[in-house]
Amino acid sequence: MLQRQQAGAISPRASGIVEGAVGMVEMALERLASQKISTSTASESGDGQHLLVVLCSERAAQPVVNTGTLYQ
Questions:
Q1: Quick one: pLDDT at residue 42?
Q2: Which residues of 16-52 are buried (b: 16+ CB within 10 A; e: fewer)?
Q3: Distance from C-alpha of 27 to C-alpha of 13, rounded to nearest angstrom
Q4: In terms of CB atoms within 10 Å, which of 12, 38, 42, 71 comes out highest?
Q5: What Rg value do the Cα atoms of the chain yield, rounded?
Q6: How much of the chain exceeds pLDDT 90, in percent?
Q7: Distance in angstroms (rounded) separating the CA atoms of residues 17 and 22
Q8: What single string gives the DSSP state of each residue in the chain?
Q9: Is residue 64 over pLDDT 80?
Q10: CA-to-CA distance for 48 and 51, rounded, in angstroms?
Q11: Residue in 70, 20, 69, 29 with CA at minimum distance from that of residue 49
């Protein structure tokens, strides 16, 4: 029930949340490019999508540690 109430309160503000997240992602990608940290474009690397998921998610980000390949 509480999650439903929270979702109802957030829904009207969703467009503002998305606009803010997109703005933060744009600034982050521009800064990475200006400092030559990332050599690929956002569309090539998927960094923008990953940042948006982290910013818009209702849960905290969890790191993924690659310990090998699934297919050998």
A1: 54
A2: eeeeebeeebeebbeebeeeeeeeeebeeeebbeebe
A3: 21
A4: 42
A5: 16
A6: 0
A7: 9
A8: -HHHHHHHHHGGGHHHHHHHHHHHHHHHHHHHHHTT---S-HHHH-HHHHHHHHHH-SS--------S-S--
A9: no
A10: 5
A11: 29
Mean pLDDT of 5-22: 78
Can you tell me which residue has the tokens 């309160």?
A: 9
What is the domain partition of the chain in residue ranges?
A: 16-56
Residues 6+ apart with CB under 8 A from 56: 17, 18, 21
Look-up of token digits 């109430």: 5
pLDDT tens string 31-49: 888 887 765 665 556 777 7
